[in-house]
Structures are given as C-alpha cells and as structure tokens.
Amino acid sequence: MAKEQKTAQDFVPIKEVHDGVVILKNGGMRSIVLVSSLNFALKSPDEQTSIMMQFQNFLNSLDFPIQIAVQSKKLDIRPYIALLEGRYKEQGTELMKVQVREYIEFVKTFVENTNIMTKSFFVVVQYDPPMVKTGNNPLSKFLPKKSASDQAAINDQQFKEYRTQLEQRVSVVEQGLVRCGIRAAELGTEEVVELFYRLFNPGDTEKPIQIT
User: Which residues, including other chains, have CB under 8 Å from residue 163's CB and lie 6 or more apart?
Assistant: First the structure.
C-alpha cells in the first residue's frame, strides 16, 4: 500500500493568521514584534552598562517565555536598480545618462563581488490558551448541543479574550525594549504572511504575495 505523500504545509505548525496573530495547529497564539538594531560598540562604557542593566531588568520582569529571532539574507538591490533605470530614462543630457549608467554598473559590480547581508530582528511573544476538555464530562450528553453558528461565536469571543492576554504581553515587551533604546512595532496580518512566505519561499522574491 503506497504511503500518502505529505506536503510542505503539513510540516508547518501554523493553522492561520488572524488579526496579526499567528494561530498554531495546537491552539497556541503568537505575535511577532519587529525590533530595531542597536550599535552597541559605538556607545560609551557608561551607556553600555546602562543598556545591559536595562535589558537585564527587562528579562527579569518577564513571567512568560519569548523567542528572539534574527533573519539574515543577502541584500536585494533589484528595486534600487529599477529606480536608477527610471532615473536614467529621465535624464535630458547624454552626459548625465553616461554618469547614471556608470553608477548602475558600479553598484551591480560592487554587490556581486561583496557579500552584503541585511539583518532583521524579531521578538516572538507567545500565549497558550488553557485547553478545556469536555469530552470526558459525564454531564455533556445531558447538555443541549450548540449549533455551528453558536459555536463559531463562542470561538470568536474566546479569540478576543485570548488576544487581549497576548496584547498585554506584547505591550510589556515593547515597553521593556523601548527602555533599552530599541524601537519595536508589532507586525500586522499582511506583514506576518509576507514574513513567513519569504522564509519558506526564499527564491520567490519577485512573485507577489497573495493574501486570502
């Protein structure tokens, strides 16, 4: 008997992205916060000590787990080259066209010969709702069954309650990072979908992202 082939989606623990919240297949909820970098080496010794103390206090104040992720990828200069090509066509003199064309070739050659990487920093805030099992409830067979619409309304209400708990955690993380001199912004639905799309499809940078 042939084994059923699994798709890549079967190995991804994500069920859906709703209102900027990543909902896992096991019911867990995650919010992703994009954070800025900090040039620690350029700070004075006193500033470095202050930053480390603030970050230590931030970590000690957390009563829930977080994940810190760093995404490194090669710099994509195609949008910049496309911009320069547009500027090239707008030039009115042959001299300016020659200069723009030489600059375009310089940028292309420089990037090809130099491994330029860009880094993005994220903090993943998690909230795992309590799992309530009703299957073993001896009184469940005597209770009236709820319709599908009623069940959907309850689920939606539960999502709002759980999302409130998650947003409170996100607020704690953002405030703690701001005290360290780091800017933070929570990703919305489109940004989260694009992030995961780029992660799982690194070669499809030219393809538009379809959000359903």
Answer: 19, 21, 29
154: confidence class by pLDDT, cuts 50, 70, 90: very low
By mean pLDDT, which of 18-27, 72-81, 105-114, 125-134 is the weakest?
Answer: 125-134
Q: Return all residues near 206 (Cβ < 8 A) that are at least 6 apart.
A: 78
The SS3 assignment for 16 reads strand
**DSSP letter at 210?**
P
Torsion angle of C-alpha atoms 122, 36, 197, 108, degrees rounded to 10:
-140
- Positive or negative, the CA dihedral 197, 198, 204, 209 is positive
For 117-145, write each residue's pLDDT tens digit.
Answer: 788 899 999 998 876 444 444 444 444 55
| DSSP bridge partners of 23 | 16, 29
- Collapsed DSSP state (helix, strand, coil) of residue 44: coil
